[in-house]
Amino acid sequence: MKQLIYIYLFFGALISCQSNNSHKTEADSSNKLKSEKNDSIQQEIKQLDLANDKKEKSIFIKDSADYSISFLNEMIKSGMDNVSLVDSFLILSPTDTITFPQIPKVGEKKTLTAKKDELAIALMIERINQTTIDYKIEMVQFGNISYNYEGQANLMPTFYLGDETDESSLSGISYMSTEFSSNQDSCYIYIRLGKEEDSGPYLLGKIIKNCNGKIKNIDLNNFPTLVEK
Questions:
Q1: pLDDT at 10 over 60
Q2: What does the mean pLDDT of the chain come to?
Q3: Does residue 17 register a pLDDT over 50?
């Protein structure tokens, strides 16, 4: 039976029309952007649908703006079905509901830094929805060697299977962390964020990253924990 993927996109009611023409233009523009994004998601899913016709599947999405297209595509590719995405919840069944990680919270901006020997790293992040962070990374090594890069990193749909475990360079104690990642060609970045009580109330981060120009690859062992400023 041909696979069917139903995505229901619910949006809040549009604000009342204003007599001011500029307000109307802004509302029309916002609505157009939402429509374009929804059309893009539906097209992505139709393409995946053609590749698999074994059984009927369904994914319910309350608001596509809460999740990245990359996350939704990975969910479909992984074979997940009969699931619902509602606000900060991933509903796997009537008795199994998972909350998306809330560290950092949606809308929060954080800067984390660390230094080892001649290398200093600053990581700026902003949580933009339930699945995604914007990030900018700056690396400076003694001798005026530097590397800057910015992009987006996402949760994997299987995040609910368990958190990552990292060790704080401040306390030596292990803590649970959430991993956001991005892979393009042979380049990758993994950003792992969490908190550890004995290290203080600060957000902690570890990164795994290659393709850093003339600067060495960074992994969990060769660079310390980044700490919120």
A1: no
A2: 83
A3: no
- Residue position matching structure tokens 């109330």: 201
At 197, which amino acid appears?
E
pLDDT above 70 (res 113): yes
Query: Residue 211: how many CB atoms within 10 A of its CB?
Result: 14
- Residue 205 has a CB neighbour count (10 Å cut-off) of 23
What is the per-residue DSSP string for 122-177? Answer: EEEEEE-SSSEEEEEEEEEETTTEEEEEEEEEE--GGGGG--EEEE-TTT--EEEE
The set of residues, in sequence order, having a beta carbon less than 8 Å from that of 225 and lying 6+ positions away, is: 114, 166, 167, 168, 169, 170, 199, 204, 205, 206
CA dist list (Å): 11 to 44, 82, 107, 109: 20, 21, 20, 26
- Mean pLDDT, residues 9-22 taken together: 38
